[in-house]
Write a structure and sequence with these properties.
- 2 copies of one chain form a homodimer.
- In chain A, 50% of the residues lie in helices and 12% in strands.
- In chain A, α4 packs parallel to α5, α7 crosses α9 and α7 crosses α11.
- The first copy, chain A, has 2 domains: 172 residues, Rossmann fold; 110 residues, 6-phosphogluconate dehydrogenase C-terminal fold (Orthogonal Bundle).
- With 315 residues, chain A is an alpha/beta fold.
- The first copy, chain A, is elongated, with a radius of gyration of 21 Å.
Chain lengths: 315, 315
């Protein structure tokens, strides 16, 4: 495929950045990939794996001459990075990010960018429970959504070029406004993660009572929860702190419905439970029809067909 | 492998029964497999797939001459079935069940069984979100736990024979008392299922607001929840009604912890969130070390290596 950007700077070199780099290298989408990570170990890992052409000790150095800068740090660190790189950005450059929350990133980043730079926030809905520079692989974005939330008045050509990059890495791209993005993701991702974290925490408390049997006999429901709850703690702390209103709104609805089901259990109201469970089963069908998952049964022993054989994800 | 039972009667012909039948047939563990299901359609399906040698219009007919009877109906139907088959059981026969709750099954079934029959309750911790006679396959129990909860004074030889059958189907067998089983499963399976059902219900309410985007952009957390929440409604209604006390206990602990995290989000207490998420990540490692799951990253696109190619699970 043809080169889309001359020089791409990745700030933060974790799962998303390393996967982007692998994908861009696989198809020659970027002329040069420059990277910055805070720790020397991560920078050396990126060089030794080879997904960055150069690594830089500061984010300011990394962005010099880049026509695309991608902020791949936790949501809570975006503003600080923007302040560091702002004065060094090339006129006409595009800045995007991959944060799971969009409005707070816009609020934190936009004020630091010069007016001749295009800021087009983004969010690839893709990931695994693994993190770090060794966890990336080129196929991560294939058939996944990449949501762009350009602010009003965003440059159409710059947006189309970024969109072309996302599509070339295999993603489906949609655009929406930031507050809407944050609400949809609070439902589909943020609140489910918080709930999974909570349930696994409860099980951990109880594990002391049951002498490890909670882990030993962990069944499908709980195993899935532990996988979700193994996601990067810093990233998720920042998601909840920065999508606070939408998450608290959805949590409120969740506890309301949970209490209604809890009451049905206490009162022995089987009809209520059965009707509720029948409704949720139908939603699963909607997801499969939307192509976001397969109907193949899952046994908590997922075999991944997308990751290359050489990928050695670390916990 | 050698035949373990001369004649096995399966009462209820869904996912677990059909998987048991496939597994027993694959290794010649049963001389004859008799089946009963309430609907003629299910009985015909069982015959046409061939996992039953004979099917019977009543459970009483199915158990005649059987040295092993397996109750594979929802937990709430166990007592009624026991009352039907009680007078027709062969002296010396073993009766077991596969219910996800054990104490209430013991309370419902035991009074209907003659004293010369061995009742050894059981629970294979295995399943998929699919149900019905077409969803079964021989490998379902491989490397899965099968918990037996024999009542005090249970016959040791009969227990060992049932254990041998479970092991021959690929399962690891452990014994524990019924109340302990019910508490452990409330944590690892029952409460997580209720939570997943609830979250998917909330998303369904919101879907009307967001014009299907909740499904379209469903991310990892939510996709996993919808899979869990697609499980059989009747089975799960009965689980909650019959493991009421343990489920309500764990739900109480869950909401306590959820409120503490919700408060941390509201107050912006990032340290609390980070510490909590770090702890839950460690639990995941425990599960992987216990061999109950793999470290391979999951993308919500599980490829199942255990089910035979011919398996066509239906929703």
């Amino acid at each position: 495929m043809a080169q889309i950007y001359n020089r791409v700077a990745l700030i933060g070199l974790g799962l998303i950045a390393s996967s982007m780099a692998h994908a861009m290298k696989a198809d020659g989408l970027a002329g040069h990939i420059a990277g910055h990570a805070k720790t020397p170990e991560t920078r050396e890992t990126a060089l030794s794996i080879g997904f960055c052409d150069t690594v830089h000790a500061t984010s300011a150095e990394a962005v010099v001459g880049a026509d695309l800068v991608v902020l791949c740090v936790p949501v809570g660190a975006m503003g600080e990075v923007a302040a560091e790189i702002g004065p060094y950005l090339m006129p006409g450059a595009t800045v995007t990010d991959v944060g799971s929350v969009k409005q707070s990133v816009i609020d934190a980043v936009a004020p630091h960018l010069p007016p001749d730079v295009h800021f087009i926030p983004g969010h690839p809905i893709a990931g695994t429970e693994h993190s770090g520079p060794r966890s990336g692989f080129a196929g991560l974005f294939r058939n996944r959504w990449w949501l762009l939330t350009p602010v009003p008045g965003a440059d159409l050509v710059a947006t189309a070029r970024l969109r072309a990059l996302c599509e070339a890495m295999g993603a489906n791209v949609d655009e929406m406004d930031a507050p809407h993005h944050d609400l949809v993701l609070a439902v589909t991702s943020h609140t489910p993660h918080l709930i999974a974290y909570t349930m696994v925490g409860v099980a951990d408390d109880l594990r002391r009572v049951t002498d490890s049997e909670v882990i030993k006999y962990s069944a499908a429901g709980f195993r899935d929860f532990t996988r979700i709850a193994a996601s990067d703690p810093t990233m998720w702390r920042d998601v909840f702190l920065h999508n606070k209103d939408a998450t608290l709104d959805i949590l409120g609805r969740f506890t309301e419905e949970l209490f209604a089901l809890q009451r049905a259990i206490r009162l022995g109201d089987g009809a209520h439970l059965h009707a509720y469970f029948t409704r949720t089963r139908a939603i699963r069908r909607g997801i499969i029809e939307a192509g976001q998952d397969t109907a193949a049964p899952d046994f908590g022993r997922a075999v991944n067909s997308a990751a290359p054989d050489g990928a050695k994800p670390r916990q």
